[in-house]
Amino acid sequence: MSQPLEAKSGAKSPRPEARREHQPRLQFWYDFASNYSWIAARRAQAAARDAGVALQWKPFLLGPIFAASGWNDSPFNVYPAKGAYAWRDVARLADGLGLALTRPEPFPQNSLQAARVALALPDAALPAFTVALFAAEFEQGLGLSEVALRQALATASAEISSLLATASAETSSLLATASAGTSGLLAGPGASLEEPQAAGLNIAAVLAAAGSDAVKQALRAQTEAAVAAGIFGAPAFIASDGELFWGNDRLEQALAWELALAGR
């Protein structure tokens, strides 16, 4: 017989006074340059869905956080022994998920444009885009190139197109709302962009929005929010009471904590 999620994770329950009935939700914070974030992104959605927890996807930049600590590079490069272990560990984790690691060169990749594109997307497109971009970077050897970005946008566009095909009018309106307040990101069935996925996302509009002041400010604000929440590495998970869990291996513990908070 399988153990409850809390028993498997070893998570301690939140304080009784912190518990309240609510829809369980967990924030997933990640940097597109992070190898452990790749592993987490590949499994977080299914784990959260199976647990009955809504997952909120939060791309941000680790670079400014590392710089504040005096690092101008990934700690996996600053400390070679740590880096060698981390890559071996990531390869083991990938193998356990049935994935083949292709290490991007150079590492880390510059994730600025990727994060901006992510924040220019409607929230509903973010999970598909994120998973597809991580796959292009760490599995297909494309890094965070323009080719990788466009490929991930095509995947997200197909997901949005599928959602629009079955969504109500109200849901369709919600799908068009981007997290950074941009508009015009959905293309109608008659749109004629170069990309074949034009019936889902207006890819040209998304890429244009990624360079807007609104999205640039949204990314700065998101990274500042990560710092304010105590995040110092990626991936990280934050429960609805602000409890922070750092690392891919803390996903199950974070889910258990959030379920306990919600009285589940």
- Give the CATH class: Alpha Beta
Quick one: biggest sheet? 4 strands, mixed
Figure out the total of helices. Answer: 12
CATH topology: Glutaredoxin
Report mean pLDDT, rounded to a whole number: 86
Structural class: alpha+beta
The low-pLDDT segments are 1-9, 178-182, 188-198
> What CATH architecture label applies?
3-Layer(aba) Sandwich
Multimeric status of the protein = single chain
Radius of gyration: 19 Å
Describe the structure.
The chain has 264 residues and is of the alpha+beta class. A hairpin with a 5-residue loop joins β3 (236-238) and β4. The protein has helices spanning 5-9, 35-51, 63-68, 75-78, 80-96, 112-120, 126-138, 146-166, 169-175, 203-210, 213-228, 251-261, and strands spanning 25-30, 54-59, 236-238, 244-246. Residues 1-22 are annotated as: Disordered. InterPro entries: DSBA-like_thioredoxin_dom, GST_Kappa/NadH, NahD-like, Thioredoxin-like_sf. This is 2-hydroxychromene-2-carboxylate isomerase.
Outline the secondary-structure elements.
Layout lengths: L4 H5 L15 E6 L4 H17 L2 E6 L3 H6 L6 H4 L1 H17 L15 H9 L5 H13 L7 H21 L2 H7 L27 H8 L2 H16 L7 E3 L5 E3 L4 H11 L3
Parallel strand pairs: 1-2
Antiparallel strand pairs: 1-3, 3-4
Helix pairs in contact: 2-7, 2-12, 6-10, 6-11, 7-8
